[in-house]
Amino acid sequence: MVIHAADNSFPDWVAYNEMIGLGGWGGRNEKSGPYVYFDRQGKLVRDESPGNGGNHGPQIEFPIIVRDREHPIVQGMPLEWLHAKDELYDKLRGPAQNMQILATAESQITGRHEPMLMTIQYGEGRVFHTPMGHAEYSQECVGFITCLLRGTEWAATGKVTIEIPADFPTAEKTSSRAAGK
Ligand SMILES: [Zn+2]
């Protein structure tokens, strides 16, 4: 499980970067791997051009767009839902091998759809990575909580039995639970 700034760690540890697929900051640049995003037409782009990896703008609420309808982590989720206030990471770079992008969010800075839910196959291991989750109010989002639980279950077992809760956010409205409830 890789959450938010965990993908800032260990810029020079080759195996860690293969596990997380994409990361940011710590001197990451084109040598770390491509900048991976979805363009406006929904096409996956692996941009090898030079540039730093990792950036974000002011914290905002933003829509999460589900890109994969079949993967157990996102199956049954609304195809668009509004995430609570958070940092929207952009320009993440990394090896991005054996990586599947399950959901994206459009960055106001890049105008591109940045990866928000990812799975990576690392050897025999399953990795779930979300760059969401900056602050407690970001992690109190029912969408975040659901992704965290389902992603963890999937990484541990390869399956998901946890259901999408009734208070899941919609395209128009965020939904949060106070910590500990
Ligand atoms: Zn942060």
From TrEMBL:
Protein name according to UniProt? ThuA-like domain-containing protein
- The segment(s) forming the ThuA-like domain are 2-155
Whose protein is this, by species?
A: Planctomyces bekefii
Query: Which Pfam family is an annotated match for this chain, by its short name?
Result: ThuA
Name the domain of life.
Bacteria
